[in-house]
Amino acid sequence: MIRWLLWLLAGALLGGIVHLVAVLMLPRTATQDAYTRLSPIAPVNAVVPVPEPTPQNSAIPFMDPAFASAVCRYDLSTGPIKLTVPISPAYTSVSFYTRRGVAYYAINDRSAGRRQIELQLMTSAQRADLPDDEEVTAADRLIVESPSDTGLILVRALAPEPGLMPAARATLSKATCKPDSGQAER
Fold this sequence. Notes:
The protein contains 5 helices and 9 strands, in the order H-H-E-E-E-E-E-H-E-H-E-E-H-E.
């Protein structure tokens, strides 16, 4: 009897290890991740609207139809980028993801405290190359360090009523994600 219990325990332990390894390896082997799915519609370092989700098709899984969404596929290999997002009347959020879909930073209109969310996105090496300017404080500019050279920025604006969706989309159409040409001047 004890021999059977040991075999069952060993089988359960081996099954648990195999399950854990499979769950951890699956995201690295997936070929249709969000970055790849958005490649045809989103050029690098530009904000583009994400098509509305339908029951049959969605560019990004589990999208909320009450939000207008836009995305920027960024590439920091040529230098930092500057992101500017105007605030919508209801709610605006910006989320940052690595190429593999790991979220590393998020900000919304309430925490930004301004009429627009404005920040610089750069790698740790690019941040280290910034000159130390005592006149420019951390409160004057927001710098986000990306753990990878490529990734996604998801911008979302809430439309509390269906009739306000065009206004939310119009707000997102004014968002920009472009190389930071003024970085050397700072």
